[in-house]
Each structure stands twice: as structure tokens, then as C-alpha cells.
Amino acid sequence: AAFVTRLLRAAGGVGEEQLRCFRECLQEAMREHYKHHWFPLVPSKGSGYRCIRINHKMDPLIGKAAGMIGLSHERLFQLLPSELTLWVDPFEVSYRIGEDGSICVLYESPQPGGKAAKQLESRTSCKEEWRIGRSSPSKSYNMMTVSS
């Protein structure tokens, strides 16, 4: 939820109070949606159900949270990447911008009783990819950073 909120913040035009409300609404929508589809002992079980996807169609969880702050699907398509996939699993959250983009890990924690999480070699390149907004060749998502 924080990642999608950061994307909206970076795009501009949404107030901080709206962003806070959006993040809270999205967290609650995800919590409710995943309630019976969260399996820490088998983290990959139900992973398709927990996938958040924007690809010519707005993900219903993001759409619901945006509706709570008055953002239409049309406005969301202007503010968010046209192709975004988030995989929300126990112990790991990953994303991809564009169909041909790299899969980047946003969050990773060791599984209880398992080996410690290994260091991610591509983390820096994924952060850079998010900043420049890499997408598949047929579509682009550009992000401009303005500082004062």
C-alpha cells in the first residue's frame, strides 16, 4: 500500500491527507481480501489471488481505495503506470512496471525456522528502474522529480 501511495505522490496532484487516507483504505482492502488467502507455511499458495494488477484494467483493490478519496479510474490511469504488477506474499512483496520490466523486491523477511533472507543483488537497479519508470517498449511511464 505504501508503494502505490508513493507512486501517486510522485505523480503529483494528490494531497497528503488524501494520500494518507488512500494508503489506509488500500491496507484495509488488502487485509480483508487476503484474510482467507494468507498461508505463511506455504507462502506461494494463493499467490495469484494476492496479485495486484494494472494492465488496461484497474485493479479492484486500488480502484476501491481511490474511490474513497474521490479519484476516478481515469485519473488513476493518468497517475499510475499503465502496466504494474505487485505480488504480495508472506515474507516477500515484489513488483514489476511494464510487461518486460525486471521483477524487483520491495520487502523481504526470513521465514520462521528457515534460512535468513539472502542479500538482493539487483535491488539498486530496481530502485533506479522505478525512478526512471521503465516499461515495456510499447508503453512508457515517465516520472519527473522536482525539488525546491
Automatic annotation (TrEMBL):
Cited SUPFAM superfamilies: BTG domain-like
Which SMART domains does UniProt cross-reference here? btg1 (SM00099)
Would you name any one GO CC term? cytoplasm
The Anti-proliferative protein domain covers which part of the protein?
80-99
Taken from the record, one Pfam family name reads BTG
Which InterPro entries does the annotation name?
Answer: Anti_prolifrtn, BTG, BTG-like_sf
One Gene Ontology BP term is: negative regulation of cell population proliferation
- What protein family does this chain belong to? Belongs to the BTG family.
What is the protein name stated in its UniProt record?
Answer: BTG1 protein
